[in-house]
Amino acid sequence: MAVNTTIFMPDLLKKFLYQYPHIKVHQTFATTLNIQHLLETEQVDFGISVTSIISSEYTNIQGIPIITAETFLALPPQHHLLKHKHISLYDVVNEPFVSMPVGYGLREMTDNFCNQAGFKPNIVIESN
């Protein structure tokens, strides 16, 4: 399988392997586009992605939501916005962002949220 998130994978794999102990799992970390390519070329049996993988060319790829999770904004301990009860994305327009590299689901999601709010995030650190 190919994944672009590891946040919930340990718990998911633990439950899966408990239910199916005879199955061996090989997991590889990949970008959303790479997961799509691996699925299209049948190099993996399935992919798990933060964002949807849509293939207009390969109709045998089917998306199934498996989890819904809240997304949070993480701030340093002394940040001035911590005193606010509610923070919108408009409040962080000029703030520096730490994010995943381009091509990963969480980065795609961050960029989409910021674009919907009308700005491009100021990514100062990219790390997977």
Automatic annotation (TrEMBL):
Signal peptide: none annotated. Residues 7-128 form the LysR substrate-binding domain. One of its GO terms (cellular component) is cytosol. One of its GO terms (biological process) is regulation of DNA-templated transcription. Gene3D superfamilies: 3.40.190.290. PANTHER family: HTH-TYPE TRANSCRIPTIONAL REGULATOR BSDA, HTH-TYPE TRANSCRIPTIONAL REGULATOR YBHD. This is Transcriptional regulator. The lineage of its organism: Bacteria, Bacillati, Bacillota, Clostridia, Eubacteriales.
